[in-house]
Design brief:
Length: 304
């Protein structure tokens, strides 16, 4: 095995648990396609995926007892020696050209702390579903992320020293823990750069954590409530948080009530959504429902 050694400029950090079905393609997308070394923290797998990773060129494997993805990611951050790190989930991919685009952006913006890119969503068989552009970063990175502009986990590259100011992933959060960290990173540094490329590939799988609509909604609400209290001195964070809450609710309502793999749960999910909606101030109800209806209608048009 050819391990990543020395002091790389960029390293992919992967937290893996029983990921044998997808891990090989994930690692190949980093090392074979981009020559990005991988630091993989195996979170107590029992399916042989850790042994497979140890045989993969360009991959360094650390093992631990099962403690959850946030703990595994945090260990990877602390163990990495790279100048910059990205987070590559064990079922996601990096598009060819990822490293080249980053190096070009870094050369043009050597003082930047964070780089972001767009995302391609694929299904379990690798078929494209939709494409999401990188956040605009306007008017500021913090407000851009807070305003529901999606930052995919593998679409953000962070200067490793910035974590000493922002902190790490919160192990007590089981949903929206990535959003929580992105907001704290944006609060710690406004030096973000938008790469105008679609380089992060996200595999949407039935049963994955991010498909748990009600729990995700509650996690987002908790994170946003904490974010508006961050002492960053930027204007309008509460208004931005309100838009984030509404957009997150609309997105949750769409995926739980419309997306075909979840239709069997639609009635129960919709009832839960109404209960969640009731917790918002009444003046937000029409806007939230309008977001949901318009978003679903546009999605149907794009699929026809």
């Amino acid at each position: 095995m050819a391990q990543a050694v020395g002091h790389p400029i960029l390293e992919a950090l992967t937290a893996s648990y029983n990921s044998a079905a997808t891990l090989r393609a994930t690692l190949a997308s980093a090392w074979n396609d981009n020559r990005i070394p991988v630091l993989l923290v195996d979170d107590g797998s029992t399916d042989g995926s850790a042994e497979d990773a140890e045989r993969h060129e360009g991959v360094r494997v650390l093992r631990q007892r099962n403690a959850g993805p946030s703990v595994a990611r945090n260990r990877a951050i602390l163990e990495s020696q790279a100048d910059f790190v990205l987070f590559l989930d064990s079922d996601d991919l990096l598009a060819p050209g990822y490293r080249a685009a980053f190096e070009t952006a870094l050369a043009a913006n050597p003082e930047a702390d964070v780089f972001i890119c767009g995302m391609q969503i694929i299904d379990e068989d690798g078929r494209p579903i939709e494409t999401s552009a990188a956040p605009s970063l306007r008017p500021t990175p913090f407000l851009s992320v807070l305003n529901a502009e999606t930052v995919p986990t593998n679409g953000i590259i962070v200067r490793r020293t910035l974590f000493s100011h922002s902190g790490l992933f919160r192990p007590d959060l089981h949903h929206a823990e990535d959003l929580d960290l992105w907001l704290r990173l944006a609060a710690a540094s406004p030096r973000w750069v938008r790469m105008d490329h679609t380089l992060a590939v996200y595999r949407r799988r039935q049963g994955s954590l991010s498909r748990n609509g009600p729990a995700m909604w509650r996690g987002v609400r908790q994170v946003v409530d904490a974010a508006v209290r961050l002492p960053i001195g930027e204007p309008g964070p509460r208004r931005a948080a309100g838009r984030k809450i509404l957009a997150s609710y609309a997105n949750w309502l769409y995926w739980t009530a419309v997306d075909s793999p979840l239709r069997e749960h639609a009635c129960a999910s919709f009832a839960g959504g109404l209960r969640e909606l009731a917790q918002l101030p009444p003046r937000f109800w029409p806007m939230a429902l309008r977001h949901a209806i318009v978003g679903s209608f546009r999605q149907r048009l794009s699929n026809d």
